[in-house]
Amino acid sequence: MSSEYKDEDPSARIERAGHEIRLLAAGLRDRPRLARTEVSDATSTERLEPARLAYAISELAGTHHRTFVEAAFRALLKRAPEPDETEAHLARLTAGARKVEILGDLRWAPEGRRVGVHVRGLRARYLLAKATRVPVFGRLLDLCLDVAALPLQPRHLRAVETTLAARDEATQETLQGLNARIGILAAQVRTLAEQAAARTTQFTQRLDDLHATLHQQALALHAVESALHTRIDAAEKAVEEGRHLGERQRERLEELEFIRQRFYAINHWAHSLETAFARIDDTARTREGELAARAATLALPALAAEPPSAQDQQSWDEAFASALPIHAGVLAFTCGRDWIERLARRGFAVVHAEPNPVLAEAARVEGVVVEPVDANELLRRVPEQSVDGISILAVSSVVRTLPLVDLLDASARVLRANGVLLLADAPGVAALVDDLRGLRADARIGVLPAPLFHAFGFAEARRIATNGSVAWLLRRAAA
Amino acid sequence: MRIGILVAVLGERDAVGTDVREMAAALQRLGHHARMFASASHGVPAAEPLAAMEELLRDPDAVLIYHFAFGWPPAIDFLRRARCRRIVRYHNVTPPEFFAEWSPEYEAACRAGRAEIDTLAALDCELYLGDSPHNVDDFLAAGVPRRRTAVLAPFNRLDHLLTVPGDFALLDAPRQRKATWLAVGRLAPNKGHLDLFDAFALYRDYCEANARLIVVGSRDPRLVSYNAALMERLCVLGIEADVRFLSGVGEEVLKAAYLSADALVSLSAHEGFCVPLIEAMALGVPVIARDAGAQAWTLGGAGLLSEGADPARVAASMERVRQDAALRDAMRETGFARIASEFAPGVLERNLGDLTEAFR
Q1: A14 touching B (Cβ < 8 Å)
Q2: Model confidence over B5-42: pLDDT tens digits?
Q3: Beta carbons of B80 and B125 less than 8 angstroms apart
Q4: Complex-level ipTM beyond the 0.90 threshold
Q5: CATH classification code of A308-476
Q6: Which of B161, B283, B327 to mutate to test the interface with A (most CBs of A within 10 A)?
Q7: How far apart are the first and last CA of chain B?
Q8: Would residue B132 count as lying in a domain?
């Protein structure tokens, strides 16, 4: 037993044994199978039958050494001694212990008490033997016993001499038998050596064959290795090319990235430019609006006392109103307050388009819808053939945002059949405002030929001549 | 307190009979008035006839302990009619599957017995007392609350076995043997004798050719085919000359068998407790057992356990036991401690006293 397990707890020892037994069991069938041996005849120790529970002390003490120990165990404990137990008791015998003492120790040990064998005469001799262990008295007792036994010693010596002689004779016979056996074994060893030599030759041949096979396999492996090297070189080259290709692609990608960044920068710059233009436009519109309002503010009082075309408007009003049905729907573009009042008084449904907020406010008349947009914007909103009349008294102001050709097309589109368009270019607030803003233009409608209007779908074009201004009254063709 | 102990048949040497008689004696020593009742009785002291139990059944202060080891419908009737407190002492019923190949009669009886577990559980008795936790599990599975269960190992005659002189006459081997296996238990399919023979043959073939096996246990004449199968297996394995059967032996011979053995080998596939294990432990005999039923609990770590009945494992265990003196000492020491703390008659009597105290 290993020393590391000496102090092992019993439960742990059993558990450890269980684990080790698993391994033992796994290899059990790998052992050589044992021959079914015939059980040998009874030995001298077998004479002490395990069923017997009574003995004479001479039966047990009559044997010696190992045989004595074996017999004592089988008689008193009904079992064979363990090897360590045998060795321990042999050591005691060698040290001079009495057999009676060993028999007594076995008989009155706990195990011996459970078996309960009775050995006649043992108890008294055991006690006597134990008494010799008592200091001083034991020595004296031992001496007395030895002296008392002296007469028996010659007889014992003769018996021992005879026994030794018999043993010597048996030993000689055994030696002779062993020598014969050794001779047989030596012959067998020689035979085996010859067989081994033959086997060695075979093995040598086999080894040579194996070496040749290994050499061939080494050559084949070398060829495979060369092929593999070639493949590896090709693969490395392909990898190198791939690496170069990758570098070029990476450079292209870097260029693309640079372009992309520039594109983003340009895009940002363009957006900023658009924003700047938008701010400029807003500023310009604001400026124009302010300028238009200021011009209107100045023009309105200047012309309030004496409207420049009051007489002309009288003529145009009569001609325009006579051409329209009762409660006609009329669009008026940049016409001024006087003209709007005239239309309203006649009971027309008037929509006045005036982009200048100051002029729009000044021309505001009850019952008239004012749209703060120019003619172009309003005409886009109005459905086809939905109004009866359109009046434009400052054509030169209107054509600044809507060319005359577009103005005539759009008007023809929204007028009903037989609807009327009044075109005039009279001096008034709108014209003065344009003058003040430096935008004055001349539509020169006075020089336009009448057939021109037919091309826009107007069936009738009548020129109305007054003192200072020219006007055209155009009638939309019937359906 | 008046206590009646009811058993179908009171045997003389079987584990249930021993438990009944020793329990009755222990109850008397504890100051109770204990009586035994059975439909048939062998040995002394004898049990009273069942008719004598009627008066006790009507006494609400009395206690009836029914020893349940196989199906017996009259007991169900008694327990139903009883006005006294009731304890079911469960020794386990062998599952019928073990007998399916060998005996339709035993198979049917065991099936009926297993069915009675549910019936007894439904009677709502005051206590279900198992020989081992393994036995208690059957009633827990049948729906009995754990608080109504307890474990009390079976009463035994270890004290007597320790003091009786061994009778080695029947074991007197005419030839010297180096290894002795011992198996104790009746010859029945659940006891694993076929596995035992396989393991022993393997041991003879690979470990120790000069070995013998002593089988102590009675043959059941109703298991003819099983007995024949055992003999056939011995012949097939070539070990018939090395196996010795001892039947109907007394405690003297049983003790001699234990003391002659290198180890007790129990390869039983189903055990509710396994009394031979504690007998071996009490006598200091190493135990090699199959980890099945309650055997692991009974051993409590004092023996070598084998999962399944692998012959190589069992043979290797025996070889290790014979070669390792320290292991044998450890097994003896652990076994003695287990007996002293759990299974000594005095311990069992004290535990029984604690259990009956709750019924006063």
Answers
A1: yes
A2: 999 999 887 889 999 999 999 999 999 999 999 999 88
A3: no
A4: no
A5: 3.40.50.150
A6: B327
A7: 7
A8: yes
